Amino acid sequence: MDTIKEFNINPVGVISKEFLNHGVHTFHEACLFVINLPYKRNTDKENPKAIFIDKCGTCSTKHALLKQLRMEHDMDDIKLVIGVFEMNGINTPQILDTLTKYELEFIPEAHTYLKYQNECFDFTKAGSSPTDFMDYLMFEKEILPKQINKYKVPPK
Fold it and tell me: What is the superkingdom listed in this entry's lineage (predicted)?
């Protein structure tokens, strides 16, 4: 995280004001804030303040929030990326029995993260690391915060 350019949060937008209301004053503090929130689906992914309301988030909502914070400060140096990787028994041992039962090598899994100067950052939860999925990455695409539903939530 220290390699990501730090900045002080100013009350320039909805997300910035929410962070300030929660006692978060710098971008690095914002990263620590989201990484320490429980991993749980938000009730309304369309609401940019969902993380603050629900006091939780997913890889999509947490990273979209951090990207939006930088955008509010006219900083376009971080990319919000969705990647699809091979979730297998090595990187996700909890699914090994299911893979074995159905004779599968892996299940394609979408994950959202940030990229800064071509380095990946995963603030999903404490202990999350790009090394968990990067060796198994099939493809990735840069998206905007408002596109997380389009890419992560199946159409109804």
Answer: Bacteria
